C-alpha cells in the first residue's frame, strides 16, 4: 500500500516507456510504389531486423569504440584530478580552501551545451585565444579539430565540467572520516602523505566506486559536447557517438524503429557495464574483510 | 522560412538540470569573465559568442536569421533541439474565436508569424487560426509524424520543399490539386515544381524561396584588383589571384555543413537528383552535373585556393567581418545573416548573379524555401486551403511576412510588395537590391525532391566532412550520397528505376 505511489511512478515513467521502446524496436514500416498515394505505408513486425541492422552498421560499431576510447581518457583523468584536489583541499597544507573548492566546482554549474559552445569558441583557429597566443609566442600551434585531436578536445570539456562534482563528493566523504583516526595515525608517526595513502584512500573507496559508476554512465551517454561542436568542424560525423546515432536515426532520418533498437542496445550495455563494474569492485573492495 | 540544411544542432538548450538558478547565474558570470579575460585577440572575439548562438540557427534556418529582426535567430535556435526543447512556444490568440467559427491550428517557425495570423483573425471571423511555433525544421517534422499518428496533428503546417515528399509518403500531407482555384498563376514554374514533385499533384502552396546569388566585398575586390566573376572559371582565377595578393584571405569557403547549399549549386549546373515517373523513383545524385560541381570545388579546396571550413560558425563570422572571406555564394536571405555575422562590413557588400558554368548563360539554383501544407487529416480542408492561399498571396499578408518574418516571398506578385521596394538596411549601397534579386529569382531552377532527403543531406555532411579532413575525392563523397540514398529507399520499399 505504502509503496503504491512509487510503483505507479515506476510503471508510468519507466516500465511503460521502456516497454514501448522495445515494442517499437521490433517494428518497421514499409511503403509500396512511389509511396505517395494515401495508405501506401504500413507498419509491420520486423523481429530483430532493426537490431541486426544497428549492429551491422560500421558507423555504430566505430562509435562504440570511439566511446570506449573517450571513456578511457575521461574517467581516469577526471577522477584522478578530483581525488587529487579533494586530498589537497582536505590536507592541512591547503590555503584559500573555500575559494579553491568553489572555483573547481563552478564549471559543473555551467550547462554542458554552454560549456561546449564556450570551448568550441576557444578551439576554432581564427578566434581562439590559445592559438593566437601560440602564434605570437612562436610556439607550436595546436589544432584542436584534427581527427587525432578531436577526441581529446571533447574529453577536455567533460573533464573540465565533471571534475568539480566528483571532487565535492570525494571531499565530503573525506570530511566524514572521524578525526580520531588521523590523531591516532599521527601518534603512530604518519606524515601527511602517508595519511592520505594509508588512511584516507582506503576510507574513500565507497565514494570512489560511486563516482566511477556515475562517470561510466555519463561516458555511455555522451551527447551534448560532440553534438554542439559538430557544426564547427568537419571531423565530427553525425554518428560520432552512439547516442548521436540514435538522435540522427530517430529525429533527423525519421526512423524511430532503428533508433529504438539502438537505444535498447545502449541501455543493455549501460546496465551490464554498471552492474559488472559494481560486481568486480565490490568483490575487490569488500571481499577481503 | 527556408531551412536549407537538415542538421539541427542543440544549441543553448537548457536541458541541463543540474545546479540551481543561482549557480547557473554564477556560471554565466564566470563564462563572461573567462571570455573577457581570455579573448584578447581582437575586439571581435568578445562579440563572437553571442553570434555563435545566432549563426547555427542561421545555418539550420537562414531565412529566420535572415530576418532583419535580431529576435529571429534567438527564436529559431532552441527549437532545433527536438520535441523536448523548451522552445519559444507561443500561441497567438489575442482575439478569441467567434462562436461557431472554424478553428484551425497552424504550425510554423517564421519569426513573428503570430502577427501575420492576427491580421487574418481580425479580418476572417469565421475561421480562427491558432499558431504554434514550438518547433522548426526536422524537429517539427518529427512532431508532425507523431501527431499525425496520435490523431492530433495541426490543420496547416510550414514544411520545407525538400521535406514534402517524406511527409506525403508518411500520409501526413495529401494531394490538394483541383481544390486550390487559380493560385498557380501567382507562381513561376521553377517554384511551382517544388510543390508538385514533377507530377500533377499539389502538396502545398509555396511560401518563400531562396534564389542563389553571389555576395562579394566591393572594397576588397577593388583593393586586390579582382573582377566580379561571370563564370566559375573566373571565380577560380579570382580565388588563385587573391591567394597571391593576400595569403591570409580566401575568396570563399566550401562548407560540409550545408547540404542545401550544395544542392543549389548542383541544381544550377543542371543536376536532377530525384525523378518520379508513374510510381517509380529514379535517383541520380551522382549525375554528371553534380560530379562536375564536386570536382570543381574539390580542386579549389585540395589546393588550398579556398577554405574548407563550415559556414555559420564563430570563425566564419569573424572571417567575413575581418575580410578573410571575400565572397559568399548564398541566397536572397543573406543580408540578414551578414547583418549579424559581419556587422562591421555594412555597405561593403554588393550582389551579383551567380557565376555561370557556360559564359553568357543566366541560371541559378535555390538554397532553402518552404511551403504551407494542408495536413491530410484536417476536418476543415477548404478553410485550411483558404488560409494557406491568403497567407502566401494576399498583399497584406505577404507584406507582413516580409516585414515581420524576414522571408522572400515565393509568389511573383508578392515580390513587389512595398516592403521590397527599398534595399535591405545592410546594403545602403545597393538601392536596387530587390529589383536585381527579383530578376535573378526568375532564373532559379530546382529539382524534384525525393522521399528521404534527410538521409541524403545527412550523408552529405558526413561524407564531405570526411573528404575534406582526409583529403579524399569529393566524387566519392557524391557517390556515397547516391548509394546511401538508394539503399535507404530500397529498404523502405520504394519502387526504384533499374532495380
What can you see in these coordinates?
- The complex is a heterodimer of chains A (289) and B (499).
- Chain A has 289 residues and is mostly helical.
- Chain A contains 12 helices and 2 strands, in the order αββααααααααααα.
- Chain A has a two-stranded antiparallel sheet.
- The longest helix of chain A is centred in the first third of the chain and has 33 residues, at 58-90.
- The model of chain A has no long low-confidence stretch (mean pLDDT 91).
- Chain B is of the alpha+beta class and 499 residues long.
- Chain B has 19 helices and 9 strands.
- Chain B has helices at residues 21-38, 43-60, 62-66, 71-76, 113-123, 137-150, 164-169, 189-192, 218-223, 232-245, 259-268, 288-302, 314-322, 334-341, 381-393, 395-405, 433-441, 453-470, 474-492, and strands spanning 102-107, 127-132, 156-160, 205-217, 274-277, 280-283, 327-331, 349-352, 366-374.
- In chain B, strand 5 (274-277) and strand 6 form a beta hairpin.
- In chain B, helix 2 (43-60) crosses helix 13, helix 5 packs antiparallel against helix 16 and helix 15 crosses helix 16 (395-405).
- The longest helix of chain B has 19 residues, at 474-492.
- Chain B is globular.
- Mean pLDDT of chain B is 83; it is low at 1-93.
- Classes of the chains: A mainly alpha (289), B alpha+beta (499).
- At the A-B interface, strand 1, helix 4, helix 5, helix 10 and helix 11 of A face helix 1, helix 2, helix 6, helix 7 and helix 13 of B.
Task: Pick out its properties.
heterodimer, A: 289 residues, mainly alpha, 12 helices, 2 strands, 3% strand, B: 499 residues, alpha+beta, two-stranded antiparallel ribbon, 19 helices, 9 strands, 43% helix
Uncertain segments of chain B are 1-93
The CA-CA distance between the termini of chain B, in Å, is: 37 Å
Computed CA radius of gyration of chain A, to the nearest angstrom? 24 Å
Strand content of chain B: 5-15%
Alpha-carbon distance between the termini of chain A? 38 Å
Number of helices of chain A: 12
The count of strands of chain B amounts to 9
Number of strands of chain A: 2
Largest sheet of chain A: 2 strands, antiparallel
The residue fraction in helices of chain A comes out at over 70%
* Number of helical segments with 4 or more residues of chain B: 19
Order of strands, widest sheet of chain A: 1-2
Radius of gyration of chain B: 22 Å
Give the topology string of chain A: H per helix, E per strand: HEEHHHHHHHHHHH
Supply the helix-strand structural class of chain A: mainly alpha
Taking the sheet with the most strands of chain B, its summary is: 7 strands, mixed
In percent, how helical is the residue content of chain B? 40-55%
- Global shape of chain A: globular
Give the averaged pLDDT of chain B, no decimals. Answer: 83
Any idea what the shape of chain B is?
globular
Task: Name the quaternary structure.
Answer: heterodimer
Amino acid at each position: 500500500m505504502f509503496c503504491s505511489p512509487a510503483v505507479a511512478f515506476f510503471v508510468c515513467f519507466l516500465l511503460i516507456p521502456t516497454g514501448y521502446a522495445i515494442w517499437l524496436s521490433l517494428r518497421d514500416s514499409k511503403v509500396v510504389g512511389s509511396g505517395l498515394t494515401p495508405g501506401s505505408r504500413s507498419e509491420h513486425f520486423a523481429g530483430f531486423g532493426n537490431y541486426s541492422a544497428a549492429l551491422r552498421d560500421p558507423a555504430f560499431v566505430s562509435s562504440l569504440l570511439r566511446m570506449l576510447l573517450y571513456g578511457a581518457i575521461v574517467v581516469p583523468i577526471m577522477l584522478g584530478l578530483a581525488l587529487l584536489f579533494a586530498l589537497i583541499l582536505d590536507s592541512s597544507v591547503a590555503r584559500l580552501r573555500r575559494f579553491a573548492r568553489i572555483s573547481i566546482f563552478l564549471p559543473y554549474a555551467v550547462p554542458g551545451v554552454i560549456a561546449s559552445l564556450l570551448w568550441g569558441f576557444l578551439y576554432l583557429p581564427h578566434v581562439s585565444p590559445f592559438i593566437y597566443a601560440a602564434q605570437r609566442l612562436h610556439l607550436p600551434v595546436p589544432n584542436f579539430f584534427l581527427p587525432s585531436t578531436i577526441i581529446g578536445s571533447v574529453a577536455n570539456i567533460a573533464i573540465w565540467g565533471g571534475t568539480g562534482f566528483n571532487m565535492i563528493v570525494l571531499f565530503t566523504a573525506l570530511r566524514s572520516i572521524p578525526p580520531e583516526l588521523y590523531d591516532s595515525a599521527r601518534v603512530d608517526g604518519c606524515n601527511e602523505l602517508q595519511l592520505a595513502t594509508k588512511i584516507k584512500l582506503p576510507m574513500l573507496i565507497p565514494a570512489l566506486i560511486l563516482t566511477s559508476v556515475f562517470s561510466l554512465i555519463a561516458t555511455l551517454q555522451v551527447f551534448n559536447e560532440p553534438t554542439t561542436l559538430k557544426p564547427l568542424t568537419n571531423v565530427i560525423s553525425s554518428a560520432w557517438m552512439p547516442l548521436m546515432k540514435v538522435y540522427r536515426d530517430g529525429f533527423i532520418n525519421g526512423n524511430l524503429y532503428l533508433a529504438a533498437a539502438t537505444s535498447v542496445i545502449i541501455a543493455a550495455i549501460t546496465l551490464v557495464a554498471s552492474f559488472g563494474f559494481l560486481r568486480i569492485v565490490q568483490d575487490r573492495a569488500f571481499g577481503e574483510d | 522560412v527556408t531551412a536549407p540544411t537538415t542538421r539541427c544542432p542543440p544549441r543553448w538548450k537548457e536541458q541541463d538540470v543540474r545546479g540551481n538558478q543561482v549557480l547557473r547565474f554564477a556560471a554565466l558570470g564566470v563564462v563572461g569573465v573567462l571570455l573577457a579575460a581570455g579573448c584578447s585577440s581582437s575586439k571581435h572575439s568578445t562579440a563572437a559568442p553571442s553570434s555563435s548562438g545566432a549563426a547555427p540557427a542561421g545555418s539550420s534556418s537562414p531565412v529566420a536569421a535572415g530576418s532583419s529582426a535580431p529576435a529571429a535567430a534567438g527564436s529559431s535556435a532552441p527549437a532545433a533541439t527536438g520535441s523536448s526543447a523548451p522552445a519559444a512556444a507561443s500561441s497567438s490568440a489575442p482575439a478569441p474565436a467567434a462562436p461557431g467559427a472554424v478553428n484551425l491550428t497552424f504550425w510554423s517557425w517564421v519569426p513573428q508569424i503570430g502577427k501575420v495570423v492576427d491580421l487574418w483573425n481580425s479580418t476572417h471571423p469565421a475561421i480562427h487560426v491558432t499558431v504554434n511555433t514550438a518547433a522548426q525544421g526536422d524537429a517539427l517534422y518529427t512532431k508532425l509524424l507523431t501527431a499525425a499518428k496520435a490523431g492530433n496533428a495541426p490543420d496547416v503546417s510550414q514544411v520545407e520543399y525538400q521535406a514534402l515528399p517524406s511527409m506525403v509518403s508518411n500520409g501526413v500531407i495529401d494531394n490538394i490539386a483541383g481544390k486550390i482555384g487559380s493560385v498557380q498563376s501567382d507562381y513561376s514554374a521553377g517554384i511551382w515544381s517544388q510543390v508538385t514533385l514533377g507530377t500533377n499533384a499539389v502538396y502545398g502552396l509555396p511560401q518563400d524561396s531562396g534564389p542563389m546569388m553571389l555576395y562579394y566585398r566591393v572594397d576588397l575586390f577593388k583593393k586586390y584588383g579582382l573582377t566580379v566573376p561571370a563564370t566559375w572559371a573566373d571565380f577560380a582565377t579570382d580565388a588563385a589571384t587573391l591567394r597571391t595578393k593576400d595569403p591570409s584571405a580566401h575568396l570563399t569557403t566550401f562548407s560540409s555543413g550545408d547540404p542545401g547549399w550544395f544542392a543549389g549549386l548542383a541544381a544550377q549546373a543542371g543536376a536532377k537528383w530525384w525523378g518520379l515517373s508513374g510510381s517509380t523513383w529514379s535517383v541520380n545524385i551522382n549525375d554528371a552535373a553534380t560530379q562536375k560541381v564536386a570536382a570543381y570545388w574539390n580542386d579549389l579546396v585540395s589546393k588550398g585556393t579556398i577554405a574548407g571550413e563550415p559556414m555559420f560558425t564563430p570563425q566564419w563570422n569573424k572571417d567575413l567581418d575581418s575580410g578573410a572571406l571575400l565572397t559568399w555564394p548564398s541566397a536572397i536571405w543573406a543580408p540578414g545573416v551578414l547583418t549579424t555575422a559581419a556587422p562591421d562590413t555594412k555597405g561593403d557588400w554588393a550582389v551579383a548573379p551567380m557565376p555561370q558554368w557556360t559564359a553568357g548563360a543566366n541560371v541559378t539554383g535555390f538554397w532553402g524555401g518552404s511551403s504551407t501544407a494542408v495536413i491530410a487529416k484536417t476536418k476543415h480542408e477548404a478553410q485550411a486551403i483558404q488560409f494557406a492561399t491568403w497567407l502566401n498571396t494576399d498583399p497584406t499578408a505577404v507584406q507582413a511576412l516580409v516585414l515581420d518574418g524576414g522571408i522572400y516571398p515565393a509568389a511573383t506578385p508578392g515580390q513587389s510588395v512595398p516592403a521590397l521596394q527599398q534595399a535591405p538596411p545592410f546594403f545602403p549601397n545597393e538601392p536596387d537590391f530587390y529589383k536585381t534579386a527579383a530578376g535573378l529569382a526568375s532564373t532559379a531552377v530546382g529539382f524534384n525532391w525525393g522521399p528521404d532527403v534527410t538521409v541524403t543531406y545527412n550523408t552529405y555532411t558526413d561524407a564531405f566532412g570526411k573528404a575534406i579532413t582526409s583529403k579524399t575525392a569529393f566524387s566519392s563523397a557524391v557517390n556515397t550520397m547516391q548509394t546511401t540514398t538508394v539503399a535507404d529507399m530500397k529498404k523502405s520499399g520504394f519502387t526504384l528505376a533499374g532495380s
